[in-house]
TrEMBL record:
The lineage of its organism: Bacteria, Bacillati, Bacillota, Clostridia, Eubacteriales. Residues 9-173 form the FAD-binding PCMH-type domain. This is UDP-N-acetylenolpyruvoylglucosamine reductase. The keyword NADP applies. PROSITE patterns: FAD_PCMH (PS51387). InterPro entries: FAD-bd_PCMH (IPR016166), FAD-bd_PCMH-like_sf (IPR036318), FAD-bd_PCMH_sub1 (IPR016167), FAD-bd_PCMH_sub2 (IPR016169), MurB (IPR003170), MurB_C (IPR011601), MurB_C_sf (IPR036635), Oxid_FAD_bind_N (IPR006094). GO terms for biological process: cell division; cell wall organization; peptidoglycan biosynthetic process; regulation of cell shape.
Length: 280
C-alpha cells in the first residue's frame, strides 16, 4: 500500500482493484463479500496512513481509471477518481471560476467530497451541488445541496458509501485571472508546506479557536522525531515520513504530540488523517 499513499507507508493488501465502471465496483464488492473480505475504498491515498502489516481485504482504488470529466454550461460533472488538479484545469480552460482553491490539493474528487477538503477559504461545500454514490446495499443513490451535510473535514457520506460522481457548480470568470490565482495559491503552498517529504498533509484537524500547527510549535515539538517520523520543521501541522518511517513511528509520534499538547494546553488534537488497519 505504500505505493498507493502519499505517506509512502503501508504493507501489502490482499487485493487492489482498479475499477473502470460502476458495474465493476459493484462486482468487486459482491465478490469481496462472498469471500468475507472487508472492503476499503480509496482515492489518491493522500489523506491515509495504512498499517505496515498490510490490509486483509479488498482495496478499491478509484483513480485515473474512473475519472471522466464533462462540462455542461457552468456545471462540471466529474467521476470520483478525477484528480482535483485536473478538474481545476478543466474549469480554467472553460473560464469557470470557484475551484481554484482545490487545484493544489493532491487528492481525487471522491476523497475530497468525503473529507469536505478545503484550502485558502474555499471548501467542497461551496461548489458540490450533487453527489451520486452507492450505499451499503449497493443501491445507486444521490444527495443534493445540504443533504451532503458538509462540515469541517466531514460529510454525510459514511465509510460504507462509495462515491461515484459529483456535480460542481462554478461561475463565469476570466481564464487568465483563474490561472493567475491558481499559480499564486500553489506558490504559497510550496513556500509553506514540506512538499519534498512524503506526508498525508495536515495530520490534525484545526481545533476550534486554535491552529494545530501553532499549538504544536508552542509546545516545543517542531522537529520532534520518533524513528523516521518527524514533525516538519517547515510546517508543524505536518508529520512527515522523513526517513523510511514505519506505521508505528507515525502512530507513536501522533500520540506523543497529542499527549504533550493536551498536558501543556488542555487542547485535545484529533487526527485529520484517516488510519486504515485491520479490525482486531
Ligand atoms: C501535501 C499535501 C497537502 C494537502 N493539502 C490539503 C489541503 O489543503 N486541504 C485539504 O482538505 N486536504 C489536504 N490534503 C489531504 C488530502 O489531499 C485531501 O483530504 C484529499 O481530499 C484526499 O483525497 P484522496 O483522493 O487522496 O483520498 P484518500 O486519501 O484516498 O481517502 C480519504 C478518505 O476518503 C475516502 N474515499 C476516497 N475516495 C472515495 C470514494 N470514491 N468514495 C468513498 N470514499 C472515498 C477514503 O476511504 C478515506 O476515508 C493534503 C495532503 C497532502 C499530502
Amino acid at each position: 500500500m505504500k505505493n498507493h499513499t502519499s505517506f509512502k507507508i503501508g504493507g501489502e493488501a490482499s487485493f487492489v482493484v482498479l475499477p473502470e465502471s460502476t458495474d465493476e465496483i459493484i462486482s468487486a464488492v459482491n465478490c469481496a463479500r462472498e469471500y468475507d473480505y472487508p472492503v476499503f475504498v480509496i482515492g489518491n491515498g493522500s489523506n491515509l496512513l495504512v498499517d505496515g502489516k498490510g490490509l486483509f481485504g479488498v482495496v478499491i482504488k478509484l483513480g485515473a481509471n474512473f475519472s471522466g470529466i464533462s462540462v455542461n454550461g457552468e456545471t462540471i460533472e466529474a467521476y470520483s477518481g478525477a484528480y482535483l488538479s485536473k478538474i481545476a484545469n478543466e474549469a480554467q480552460k472553460n473560464s469557470l471560476g470557484g475551484f481554484e482553491f482545490a487545484s493544489g490539493i493532491p487528492g481525487t474528487l471522491g476523497g475530497a467530497v468525503k473529507m469536505n477538503a478545503g484550502a485558502y477559504g474555499g471548501e467542497m461545500k461551496d461548489v458540490v451541488i450533487k453527489t451520486v454514490y452507492l450505499d451499503k446495499n449497493l443501491n445507486l443513490c444521490e444527495k443534493t445541496g445540504g443533504e451532503q451535510m458538509f462540515a469541517y473535514r466531514t460529510s454525510a457520506f459514511c465509510d460504507d458509501d462509495i462515491i461515484i460522481k459529483s456535480y460542481i457548480k462554478l461561475n463565469r470568470k476570466n481564464a487568465d485571472e483563474i490561472r493567475a490565482e491558481m499559480l499564486d495559491l500553489n506558490a504559497r503552498r510550496k513556500e509553506k508546506q514540506p512538499l519534498n517529504y512524503p506526508s498525508a498533509g495536515s495530520t490534525f484537524k484545526r481545533p476550534e479557536g486554535y491552529f494545530a500547527a501553532k499549538l504544536i510549535d508552542d509546545c516545543g515539538l517542531r522537529g520532534k522525531s520518533i524513528g523516521g517520523a518527524h514533525v516538519s520543521d517547515k510546517h508543524c501541522g505536518f508529520i512527515v515520513n522523513y526517513d523510511n518511517a514505519s506505521f508505528d513511528d507515525v502512530i507513536n509520534l501522533i500520540d506523543f504530540v497529542k499527549k504533550t499538547v493536551y498536558e501543556k494546553t488542555g487542547v485535545m488534537l484529533c487526527e485529520e488523517v484517516k488510519i486504515l488497519k485491520n479490525k482486531d
